[in-house]
Specification:
- With 302 residues, this protein is α/β, with parallel strands linked by helices.
- It has two domains: 83 residues, Arc Repressor Mutant, subunit A (Orthogonal Bundle), CATH 1.10.10.10; 214 residues, D-Maltodextrin-Binding Protein, domain 2.
- It is 41% helix and 23% strand.
- The chain contains eleven helices and eleven strands.
- Helix 1 packs across helix 2.
- 30% of the residues are buried.
């Protein structure tokens, strides 16, 4: 397997089970992915995939090749991180992955400051709720909201930043309406993955009395609360900074998760990564009260 580009494409098809999904992940067109897979099959003299109605499935030969290809990928990633670590210039690309809400509702002004202070560093923000693969160098640094620190991959280097809290919020307008009723109070806006409501959020409400609205991300959830539909559990750093929202009276706040900054291998040794790590740690610390739900603009005081 001399051509690493072909191997990379093969692994993407194997993992996604689809040429289209592999094309999207690699940002290559459909025909290029098919051509590289065909080149690899010709080189090895074996068929690597069966094309089924459900997608592309590895043949026995393909499954055997996959394990070897993954070893190549790991070696390639290690080599890249070591080469990256030797580059001590405060110039060039720095790819940072973090959740969209963290970018939009908390850190964008800080990231703007970093860019102004270090204009020679090309800061690339990867904003996604899906975790990037640092081992495959999809990013140099990842900031993640971690719900259980024991779930952190052992091969990554982690630095704990700060705990994050969440509360129950409703729009100020809905709370002030003369027609405000128990029915309004009990209308929940939930994310699709929510599996029931925690006990701490149920004070003074009956979650079974009104069917909830379900959305698939926190931005839609926030928009629904702003539209006076009902109430939702939201991160304090998102909702407390929104003057249209208020915490539900007599409700509590609760621990949500912990922000961690993660790197892989020797990447953390570069000046760019060390500089960014020190900068973002200081900025997150400066947001401590907001993250804990004890911001100067307390929701109950709006």
């Amino acid at each position: 397997m001399e051509n690493w580009d072909n191997v990379r494409v093969f692994l993407a098809v194997a993992r996604h089970g689809s040429v289209r999904a592999a094309s999207n992940a690699l940002q290559l067109n459909h025909s290029t992915v098919l051509r590289r897979v065909s080149q690899m099959e010709a080189q090895l003299g074996a068929r690597l995939f069966e094309k089924l109605p459900t997608g592309y499935e590895l043949t026995p030969a393909g499954a055997e090749i996959q394990s070897l290809a993954e070893e190549m990928e790991q070696s390639s990633s290690l080599l890249q991180s070591r080469v990256f670590a030797r580059d001590q210039r405060l110039t060039g690309k720095l790819r940072v992955a973090m959740p969209p809400s963290l970018v939009a509702d908390l850190l964008m002004p800080d990231l703007a400051d970093f860019s102004r202070e270090h204009p020679e560093i090309e800061l690339q923000i990867i904003s996604s709720y899906e975790p990037v693969n640092l081992t495959r160098r999809q990013a140099d640094v990842a900031i993640r909201l971690v719900y259980d620190q024991f779930s952190l991959p052992q091969h990554l280097v982690g630095q704990r930043l700060h705990d994050v809290y969440r509360g129950v919020y409703i729009s100020q307008a809905l709370l002030n309406e003369s027609a405000y009723s128990e029915r309004d109070c009990n209308k929940w806006i939930l994310k699709e993955e929510d599996n029931g409501l925690p006990d701490w959020a149920l004070v003074g409400s009956d979650p079974t009395s009104v069917p909830p609205m379900k959305v698939n991300d926190v931005f839609s959830q926030l928009a629904a609360v702003r539209a006076d539909i009902g109430k939702a559990i939201l991160p304090c750093f998102v909702a407390d900074a929104d003057m249209a929202l208020v915490r539900v009276p007599k409700s509590e706040i609760a621990f949500y998760g912990t922000l961690w900054m993660l790197t892989y291998g020797d990447t953390r040794k570069t000046n760019r990564v060390r500089l960014f790590g020190k900068f973002i740690k200081e900025r997150v610390d400066a947001h401590a009260e907001l993250l804990k739900g004890k911001s100067p603009v307390d929701a109950s005081m709006k």
